[in-house]
Design brief:
Layout: H1 2-12, H2 18-38, H3 43-53, H4 56-87, H5 89-101, H6 103-126, H7 128-155, H8 157-165, H9 173-198, H10 203-227, H11 229-257
Length: 258
């Protein structure tokens, strides 16, 4: 269906913007999906499954994380938008270029998001003590791997950005250094957030997101205005450190209560 729509767009387009095209194709996709499900011979079982998923417990689990995700998306991109306004569009290209060099970390993070919850649940069935011990073990092992990798990228940041993007961005190699440090904290946040979800402490996601959002909104403009690229990187790294600190503090408080 998507391929057919794209062919139609390329062949029949007459002043239709790509944004409108994707909006129309998305609506068509959902209508087609709904039509297929409604004709599915076991739709009663599907409806029962959906009804089961929309329980109060699921809502209580998901709502804080939904609001946290929205706030994190806004605050995570706000410093980029401000950089574009105050430093020019070239700044956005440089920041995105530096971030993309470490995109392989994101693949690893996504793998952890899929793998760790299953393992954490198995340890939770044994005891919360065993879960906490395994969680700390994962944190330490991750640091043993991520710190040397980040250190190598930092040492050879100029060579890396030269190889990836050429001479034009070599003078922005210091951005790679900041992103390398930031990705260490991005790793740490993964097992901490999964641990908190497994033990049912999900409200911290909303409070942490609000705190990080306020930090971003209040400090981004003055920091970038006064310090340029350096200010943008301080905000970016500060977001990760603040989020990790708030969530790990919750982990320690929860352990102390138990």
């Amino acid at each position: 269906l998507s391929a057919l729509l794209m062919v139609m767009y390329l062949g029949l387009n007459d002043g239709l913007s790509i944004e409108v095209f994707f909006l129309i194709s998305t609506v068509i996709f959902f209508i087609a999906s709904f039509a297929l499900i409604s004709r599915f011979p076991y739709r009663k079982n599907v409806n029962n499954l959906i009804a089961y998923a929309l329980t109060k417990k699921i809502f209580l689990y998901a709502t804080p994380q939904l609001s946290a995700s929205i706030l994190q998306f806004m605050s995570g991109n706000f410093f980029v938008y401000v950089s574009a306004i105050l430093l020019g569009p070239v700044a956005v290209g440089a920041i995105r270029a530096a971030a993309s060099i470490l995109s392989f970390f994101i693949v690893i993070f996504n793998a952890l998001d899929n793998y760790l919850p299953k393992i954490f649940r198995e340890y939770m069935k044994i005891s919360k003590v065993d879960l906490y011990a395994y969680f700390q073990n994962i944190l330490v092992k991750g640091l043993i791997v991520s710190i040397p990798v980040s250190a190598i990228i930092i040492i050879y940041s100029k060579e890396v950005i030269l190889l990836a993007y050429g001479e034009e961005y070599v003078d922005k190699a210091f951005l790679v250094v900041w992103f390398s440090i930031s990705h260490i904290f991005m790793y740490l946040i993964r097992p901490v957030s999964i641990y908190l979800r497994i033990i049912g402490e999900v409200k911290i996601f909303s409070s942490a997101a609000i705190t990080v959002g306020l930090f971003t909104l209040l400090l981004t403009i003055p920091f970038i205005y006064l310090y340029g690229y350096l200010g943008a990187m301080v905000i970016m790294l500060g977001q990760q450190i603040l989020q990790f600190s708030l969530m790990y503090r919750k982990v320690l408080l929860t352990k102390a209560l138990n």
